[in-house]
Amino acid sequence: MNFGIVTVSDRSSRGERADASGPALAQVVEAQGWRVVRTKVLADEMGPLSEILAGWADSGDCDVILTTGGTGLAPRDVTPEATLAIAERLVPGIPEAMRAASLDATPHAMLSRLAAGIRKQTLIINLPGSPTGAVENLRVVIPVLHHAVELLRGRPGAEAGHAKAD
Fold first, then answer.
1. What is d(CA 39, CA 22) in angstroms, rounded to the nearest whole number?
2. Position 156 confidence tier, pLDDT thresholds 50, 70, 90
3. Is 39 helix (H, G, I), strand (E, B) or coil?
4. Which domains does the chain have, with CATH numbers?
5. Rounded to whole angstroms, what are the CA distances from 20 to 69, 104, 131, 132, 165?
6. Which residue from 17, 74, 161, 166 has the fewest beta carbons nearer than 10 Å?
């Protein structure tokens, strides 16, 4: 599978802080045998983020786009809004599962405004901005990503994978 990773951070986009979350996610993706084909660091700005997400999804280059950052309560945290603005369909079970799993680690998980959606045949998933939070949340959804992409691509036999894994 091919992944795009977008880090949403004002400070990282200005070069004031190194992006730690994007590379941490890339390491997890590549450890699964998947490819990271696009990366970008952007400021917390809805317009440019929506444009990148839509462009990458519309190109067909990415099966999955992961965003990290911009999912909190701060006034400039607009990643979910940017995602929802370009998504054609929502996948509410993904953020629900991530929040539920994160509640075991911190009560602050209930403040997370994660979102997930589909544009064309690309799954877009918002993850928290901290490297630890981003990786932990990605690990929650890894077991379903291949199946999700198979369904989105309309591959034969994809529907057969709905049984619970042991």
1. 8
2. confident
3. strand
4. 2-162 (3.40.980.10)
5. 11, 23, 6, 10, 32
6. 166
